[in-house]
Structure prediction request, 494 residues.
Amino acid sequence: MRNIAAKVNIAQINWKPDKQSIVPMHKQIYDFIKSKIASGDWSIGNRLPTQVEMANAFKVNRSTVLEAYDELKTEGLIESKKSSGTIIVNNTWSVLASKTPPNWDKYIESGYQKPNLNVIKIINELNMDSKMIRLGAGELSPEMYPVQYMKSIYDHMLTDVHYMGYEEAKGLLPLREEVCKYLKPMGIDVNPNKVLIVSGVLQALHLISMGILRRGSTILTEQATYIQSLTLFESHGIHLTGVAMDGEGLVVDDLLRKVSMKKPELLYTIPSFQNPTGILMSDKRRSAILKLCEKERLPILEDDTYRELWLDEAPAAPIKAGDQDETVLYMGSISKSLSAGMRVGWIVGAERVIDRLADIKMQTDYGSSSISQWMCYEFLAKGYYQSFIQSLRGELKIKRDFTLKILEHYFSDIATWQKPAGGFYIWLTLNKEFQMYRLFESCYRQGVVINPGNIYDITSNKNIRISFSYASLEDIEQGLIILARMIKLNLNKH
Ligand SMILES: Cc1ncc(COP(=O)(O)O)c(C=O)c1O
Prediction:
């Protein structure tokens, strides 16, 4: 005989939710049922009235009862079965007493900032594993850090710096003055009011997306670019459109075409040792791009993060140096040439734009760390920065040349590349298309982390960004041998 569970008699429920209460109706119904189970009035196996019966008895919508039932189900107190209706399945004290935490998943999905690209999340995790060979990492290796200079600066700071409160909105004035002195020989002649200190260029990009760009607007970028690997512009509803590049940087004809087609609000460019391609924009190209943008009244956001890392000869002057009409917003950072963890960068431009960004920065974090700003000031003011970069260039050059030699040996039959004149990166173009994620995965299973090119250009299935800055010479060789093997293995699978 089928065992039909005893049903709670709706007619005997002598209770109704209070419509005047500030407690939502579904919560009152939920509390009532829970109290009935806790007191033992209703026991395991009892069948609850149907949602319609409850709704009629309590004079509420069915959806209100449904919400209460759903919460009880989430807590494991009741279950719905097609054959027997909604049954009480648990009355243990621990379940009744437990409070369900807020539904954080719902909150997490509601935030406007999109999560990082999955591959980037995996790369970030793998990069924290010291056993991995990091062939994609865009930072200096730990041995390269200017430890001696840092020690001397710490000592000075103990005696020289007596105050570390909130700084001015645009950042520590002595640092901004030093930044102006540092930029002058490059042809950028500005006063400290046109300089905003930021916690890295990444923060400058956030401030720009929040402060001066419209949702739905378009930014032109190099076809493969650092900012494609970020979700920050997408999160603000801003579209990115790639412009073709050749060996001298952005192709002017294509830029002109995209300007007419897309009506962009900004051109973002990395003219010196571009990330990820390593391309150095020629002087002529810089002038042509500035001229075009001035004519079109299109602001340029110039990211000069890699400028100091020239290995053969100094790059052409920044685009900003030729800017007479305040078309260019110029960004610099010490992340690649001194310390990524100090989180110091700057943005230079028209004063009203800098005022606007400074106001947003104050609302965001009330200024960058005083310690970092003072340290950066000391590095610049004492000439340590310039001395350090000089020796850094020597070390990086050895690493670049070594990497090129290894590539020549193991990759000539499977890929092509250009010798970068500076920066950290060599942009490999494989002879065949690949399933990039599969290649990435097979490499990290062998202990090598690579940055697949499609995180910088979604249309690319042939590129890998190799970085020679982080791994030791030994690791570079071993890592590249493994990568070449994985490419050949994956090739053979096709
Ligand atoms: C072109 C470019 N701009 C900016 C950044 C971020 O720099 P920061 O550490 O100053 O935020 C990077 C880091 O990889 C980069 O490659």
In short: The longest strand covers residues 328-333. Residues 384-411 form the longest helix (28 residues). Residues 138, 200-202, 226, 270, 275, 303, 305, 333, 335, 340, 345 surround pyridoxal-5'-phosphate (CB under 6 Å). The mean pLDDT is 94.
